[in-house]
Design a protein that fits this description.
The protein is α/β, with parallel strands linked by helices and about 350 residues long. The protein has helices spanning about 35, 45-65, 85-105, 110-125, 165-175, 180-190, 215-225, 230-255, 270-285, 295, 300-315; strands spanning about 5-10, 15-20, 25-30, 75-80, 105-110, 130-135, 140-150, 150-155, 260-265, 290. The strands form 2 sheets. Strands 3-2-1-4-5 form a 5-stranded mixed sheet, with helices on both faces. Strands 8-7-6-9-10 form a 5-stranded mixed sheet, sandwiched between helices. Helix 3 links the parallel strand 4 (about 75-80) and strand 5 (about 105-110). Helix 5 packs across helix 6, helix 5 runs parallel beside helix 7 (about 215-225) and helix 7 (about 215-225) packs antiparallel against helix 8 (about 230-255).
């Protein structure tokens, strides 16, 4: 069995993990950067990159110590090579390259989105290809047919903001703090989801894609009126997101061949209201619903190590000249979607 060291540094989580190809997580070290960015209400790329540079080496050392291993015990070194904030991506990838060069171990450049896409298979050995994936994160909102490692068909994407981005900006508008997704969910638990009339962008549209920019703007206008409680706006926003995701999911599923499983991944997959909706939808459609545990939804090193293990098993390794990528679509052949802000 292969043992993979995985490094993650695409946004504001620095992580190193060691995973064995039998799905055993031997070690996982993670450091969040919330305290670095809270004063700004969002992630500052330069601050994030500096924090990654300070934290990555100690986290690698901690992961090896926790696993009781040295680099000699590692079979390959995987790192997020994109997409993400390019300064942070470079920190993790350069670290992996240095370790690979020093030890003579193979390098595996992992697409961060593939890390999310394959993460449910780390904890569910029965999840076989193909499956339908809703990938919802701070930077992306996509519906994908996962055919196998490195083989994806993008069915839908957002034409403007990602759903996680909308959560973060809503939290900032409402003064709920950072990180935004959990803050909005907590406030929504004490609010009335029907109190604030908010739009459902693209609901009922004859296209598969998502849109959340208009919803975010409507939250701002509602807040500026001073007529609504913050908790009610948060609850109404969260319900609008659930309704939009359900409508767009239904549109695509109605027009494709049936798949055995519906899978959700990405940071927004930790939202309980979204999970409940997806579980109910899957049951109604005769699909198995698979969601990774909450800790595996947000950015972490274990998903990168596991994606590295899957790629390593398929004979997919990379040269030390692999270049970090700020954008890296899982399906480069997907038809272009309308919208200047498309998150491929």
């Amino acid at each position: 069995m292969a043992i993979i060291l995985g490094l993650e540094s695409s946004c504001d989580e620095t992580a190193a993990a060691i995973v064995r190809s039998d799905r055993t997580i031997l070690a996982h070290a993670l450091a969040g950067q919330e305290d670095h960015h809270r004063a700004f209400g969002g992630v500052v790329p330069e601050i994030a990159a500096r924090a990654h540079a300070e934290l990555m080496t100690p986290l690698v050392q901690a992961a090896l110590a926790d696993a009781g291993m040295t680099l000699d015990d590692i079979d390959a070194i995987a790192a997020t090579a994109g997409p993400g904030l390019i300064g942070g991506v470079m920190v993790g990838l350069v670290t992996a390259k240095a370790l690979a060069m020093a030890t003579g171990k193979p390098l595996i450049a992992v697409n961060h989105l593939e890390g999310h896409a394959l993460s449910p298979r780390l904890v569910d050995a029965d999840l076989a290809f193909p499956y339908l994936l809703l990938l919802v994160s701070g930077g992306h909102c996509q519906l994908l047919r996962v055919n196998g490692v490195g083989d994806y068909n993008r069915l839908a994407t957002t034409i403007d903001d990602a759903v996680g981005e909308a959560f973060d900006k809503t939290a900032k508008i409402l003064g709920l703090g950072f990180p935004g997704g959990p803050a909005v969910e907590r406030a929504a638990a004490n609010g009335n989801a029907g109190a604030v009339p908010l739009p459902r962008p693209l609901k009922g549209a004859d296209e598969p894609h998502f849109s959340f920019a208009g919803l975010k703007s409507a939250v701002l206008r509602a807040h500026e009126t001073g007529q609504y409680r913050v908790e009610d706006i948060a609850a109404s926003f969260q319900q609008a997101v659930v309704d939009c995701l359900l409508d767009r999911l239904r549109y695509s599923v109605d027009r494709m061949e049936s798949l055995p499983a519906l899978v959700v991944a990405g940071g927004v997959a930790a939202n309980e209201a979204i999970r409940t909706m997806l579980a109910d939808f899957a049951t109604a459609r005769g699909m198995r619903f698979v969601a990774p545990p909450l800790w595996l939804c947000t950015d972490n090193g274990a998903m990168i190590a596991w994606a590295g293990a899957e790629r390593f098993a398929a004979g997919l390794t990379d040269g030390l000249d692999f270049v970090a990528r700020p954008r890296w679509p899982l399906d480069p052949n997907a038809a272009p979607a309308r919208g200047a802000g498309v998150k491929a």
